[in-house]
Amino acid sequence: MTTPPRTGRRRPPHRRGAATTAALASACLLATACAGPPRTGADTSFFALSAGTPRAAGAIDSFTWAVYAEPLTLDYTMAFDYPQNTILSNVCESLMRWTPGLTLEPGLARKASNPDPTTWVYDLREGVRFHDGRTMNADDVVFSLDRQMDPDNAAAWAQNFQNVSGVTKTGPLQVTVKLKKPDSQFPQYMATAAGVVASRAGVEKAGRNYGTSGGLACTGPFELGTWRKGQSLELDRFNGYWGTRAKSGKVLFRFLTDASARTNALLSGEADGGYLIPTESYARLNRSGNGTLYFGEGLSTVNVNITNMKGPLGDVRVRRALSLALDRSGFVTAGLGGGGSATTSLTTRAAWAGSSKEVRKSAFDVLPPPARDIAKAKALIEEAGATGAHLTVATSSIGQDVSLLATAVQAAGTQIGLNIRLRSIAPNAFSALFTDPGARDGIDMFPLTYYESITDPLDLLTNFRTGAYLNFAGYSDKRYDELVDRATAVYDPDRRMRIEARLQQRAAERLPWIPVAEWPTAVFLNKRITGAPTSIAYMYYPWAADVGAAT
Fold it and tell me: Which domains are assigned to the chain?
């Protein structure tokens, strides 16, 4: 995104620190309040990553899931934040599929081929039925992808189609995508909401109401049921599904915007489970005995987004000084409830899974350690002539990951001679930082959690290209832009990531954002249910179909 986000994205943003409930935000929005971070010396062994949860022992009539916000729409072209994708991933399917292990496999396309660098051919599965009773064909795919590119739709995923010159039907069950130039990212995004296929007839029948009422005319293991606006949304098992039948007959999503209420619902059994657990509730849920709190592979990093380089932050020495002075470990303990790890990497290690060990090593070994060095930071501030300089960082009660990171930035600045003040932004206005340049007036930095939508570091690193959506400070580096173009054009993962390792090093040297922590995925399941994946794959994988009875 998003995190777009608790943070933001553009595609719109997926991000979150600034993430928001808006479709444009792509980052993650955890809210305030419950039990506080674990005390020093407390047991933190439960933060170990799990590959998954135990498989379901059998079927179940229904289960209830807690989500932090109600989607504004379930139109797949606007599915760029956690609430939408958590639900939509079980209803609408894409040409390719993201697995719980964060790899790609065939989805509605039984095969994807690349006969030349600017051509992708998708051969479709035969006999796949939509929820409206129609059978999927190539016309539906062309229509669905064209909706992403139609400027009148303002699709959140439009940027991912910028290199597409055309989508054509080349057979009853075959679609060919022609690119303007080689684009290694495009085929990967076909496993996200960017590659969703919906019934043309169903979408056209719904008209402007598509995504907000009625059905979604997709192909997933569940179809849209009753939507009680402001309260809950139900999904009903689709018995005509082409794949493995869902283990649960119904899923009820409850919209619980207050973090305390969400945690209490998990503890009381009103909700059987949930992702995006409030960080301040980790310890409380773990010791409750009512269920199990799992942590899995994530693709999220917590950062400080630099939004203004016209003032003191335009000097890279000031940005480096703030990075050196930040108490990352303290933030992980307090802001992330102990669940995470301090880092000076803008990308997660999981994002490099497609590369060799040698490339991964080269991408991380060149990065500075996350330990603080106040003396060196003070020296940089003095060298830059920035002692006493005034800076403003946005904060919000949207979640302690946001508010405590802003406080940590202020404390770091104070220790090295900067004068940093906090500007509080209401939770419902925080998303404007991603979409409205006026909302960023007078703000130099704000906390931002970014999640990658594909297992490729370029998903994040491209944000620092000249003119990129999340490049709010107008950072520009011709050499960096050239490396982005080179990496984008290379399909071989290891070769591409060798270039991306250089991009990561360049970003670490120049700090267009200041990286703070890597944040795993958290999911809580009570004793009734099991089967949900622990990784961030739930954003695009039909995870609810795997959930069933624990015993």
Answer: 1-25+47-91+213-551 (3.10.105.10), 96-206 (3.90.76.10)
